[in-house]
Write a structure and sequence with these properties.
Layout (H helix, E strand, L loop, with lengths): L1 E7 L6 H14 L4 E7 L6 H7 L6 E5 L6 H11 L4 E4 L10 H10 L5 E5 L12 H17 L1 H4 L10 E4 L15 H8 L5 E5 L14 H17 L2 H29 L4 H24 L12 H28 L4 H25 L14
Parallel strand pairs: 1-2, 1-4, 2-3, 5-7
Antiparallel strand pairs: 4-6, 5-6
Helix pairs in contact: 1-4, 9-10, 9-12, 10-11, 11-12
Length: 372
Amino acid sequence: MISVVIPTYNEAAVIEETLRRAAAALCAASEDFELVVVDDDSADGTAQRAESLAPAIPVRVLKRPGRLGLATAVLDGWAMARGEILGVMDADLQHPPEVLTALAQAIRKDAADLAIGSRYVPGGGTSDWTWLRRFISRTATHMAATVLPLKLAAVGDPMSGVFLLRASALQDAKLNPMGYKILLEVIAKAHYRKLVEVPYVFQERERGSSKLGARQYLEYLLHLAKLASGTGQLLGWLGYGLVGLVGAVIDVALFYFFVERWGWRPAPALAAAILVALSSNYAGNETFTFRMREAGATQGGFGVRMARYVRVCIPGALLNMLVTLLVISQGGGVFTGAAVGVVSGGIYNFLFNIPAIWRTWNRLVEPPSPAG
């Protein structure tokens, strides 16, 4: 059985359509299912409208006193669920319920332990969002993958609010979410082997009002910090940082030696120094930062991973070269130029390239198999 939890707060305008479409989607997947509505004391009669559908649709309603939050609503719903497959979906139709059909098939046919509805894989999208909303969403997604790259770097849409997972994946997983992004908690702490992302197009809300505000965004940031500490990611960052520091010293020292002692021209000297530093960084991360990675979590052999690592580091390396040569051309010393270049490249990688760099070692997410 599949148990889909649908948290609600003042969603009377859409709850009936949501439940009917969700039921039709799971019927289309030939699934035995239940829909668990967890209502946070809605004043508009949301819970009552959901309960009125019980004779026609397998729906149960849990009423909670006060507005206690989406993430805890999901956990309370899962606690009363009967299914061996658990899920969650918003009630406002921004997640088209029809995606449940493909998610259920990903669990059953593709043997996935976790199937995520994704806006950011081929076939997915975000409807008619403004450029600002797209920017905020992409920034939040990139931020999550940067703070928690060991867990999230290979996931296209870790911010998704619609997904299914095997209940067994939560065994011994101590979920303690805050805010509204329960999937971050699941990806970080659940025990799963195969994750599949299924494309869907996020829809604009037509009825009701958004529940997001400054408080929810602050909770999101606090949640990321909490997960980084609780999952051991901070230790991974410490190892990565120490390796990077050694690489920076090697870069600056070699460049200075090649130019000042051997008389090389700055450009070839810098290219050689950066290549040695990148090789050192890769070997250090392979040996130390990722030595505790799960078996099978990496893709390809040592050489393949190193080539992938160097390739994704090229933008930061080019920035390093440009800044270093620019500083020297403006009268800066060799040492000063190299130091400023290394810092510039490091900042670029931290802000824009961490997920891609850490995907060098991470298990890749598998796409769903073709229908039929």
